[in-house]
Design a protein that fits this description.
Shape: elongated
Number of helices: 1
Helix content: under 10%
Radius of gyration: 22 Å
Strand content: 15-25%
Number of strands: 14
């Protein structure tokens, strides 16, 4: 005689929970600074929703990609005749959300300026042996994500500028919260590099942390631009040396470098997924709790099993 326990949901055939919503931060890797009187790299693309509004399906596996920071450029710089351009950072991906790597910082190509690369945030424009025209920084928010709930990924890199000898300067890399500092048009201080754009704060990790700072541009007069708040690398005043890199897990852009040296690497990205603890029992990624929420952190490839 059957009492219909499975139909009522009291037995092994109880219905599974339905879809639930999560919050996320998907931060890509930062771009590297350029070589030789160069600009800072752009911060990795920063995409976030401030509330739990992204639907996931229980028992579904979502692949996670966390972008690496860009390696220092191997493009030769003067006097070897190359462009000195940095490299773009790696993209980070969760479900349908992709954040683009930070744009490459511009260098100087045999006496000709080299523009910054496009990306999540744009790389700064390289130095220019002539006061005009200004060297363009790269565009941020490429590809365009502004029609979506996550808004802009990041901002443009600053212009480069210069003049003869030590007057040359690179622009700051764009950050997740503001453009990189431009050193053109005038007024500007010759030989002083542009500061990187600041990153964006968030409490998704359980504490208030700023990430996504752009790299600082180098000044030919050995006056470095500062890295943007949130992991941007400062430029270096050491001719022939290597610039500091962006901070790992902050997606910071690498710093530019004084004459003859190599720009700094970009910082690795990071990815957070935050849900109500009651929504699921998944242990994907590195888990922590904050109040009624569980936070899943990813610093490399993985899966989120909803």
């Amino acid at each position: 005689m059957s009492f219909g326990y499975n139909i009522l949901g009291f037995g092994s055939g109880a219905a599974a929970a339905g879809p639930y919503n999560v919050q996320f931060l998907v931060l890509a890797g930062g771009g590297s600074g350029g070589n030789h009187n160069s600009a800072g790299g752009g911060a990795g693309g920063y995409r976030i929703i401030a509330t739990k509004a992204h639907e996931v399906i229980p028992c579904t596996t979502y692949c996670i990609t966390v972008g690496s920071g860009a390696d220092p450029s191997t493009n030769p710089s003067p006097p070897f005749g190359g462009p000195g351009l940095g490299n773009q950072g790696g993209s980070s991906i969760f479900d349908t959300i992709t954040s683009a790597g930070g744009g490459a910082g511009g260098g100087q190509a045999s006496g000709s300026p080299w523009v910054g690369g496009d990306g999540g945030s744009g790389g700064g424009g390289g130095s220019n042996p002539s006061l005009t025209p200004a060297t363009d920084g790269g565009s941020g928010n490429v590809p365009d994500t502004s029609p979506t709930a996550t808004g802009l990924q990041g901002y443009d890199g600053g212009y480069g500028a210069g003049g003869a000898g030590t007057a040359q300067i690179g622009g700051g890399g764009g950050g997740a919260n503001e453009v990189g500092e431009s050193k053109s048009p005038a007024p500007y201080t010759a030989g002083v590099g542009g500061d990187g754009g600041d990153g964006r704060p968030s409490t998704i990790s359980g504490t208030d942390v700023t990430r996504g700072g752009g790299g600082g541009g180098a000044g030919g007069n050995n006056n470095p631009g500062s890295g943007g708040a949130g992991g941007g690398g400062p430029s270096s005043t050491s001719p022939g040396g290597s610039a500091p890199g962006g901070t790992n897990e902050y997606g910071g852009g690498g710093g530019g470098i004084a004459p003859g040296g190599a720009g700094g690497p970009g910082g690795d990205g990071i990815l957070f997924i935050r849900r109500l603890t009651a929504s699921s029992s998944t242990t994907s990624g590195c888990c922590s709790t904050c109040g009624c929420d569980t936070i899943h952190k990813f610093t490399g490839p993985g899966t989120y099993i909803a």
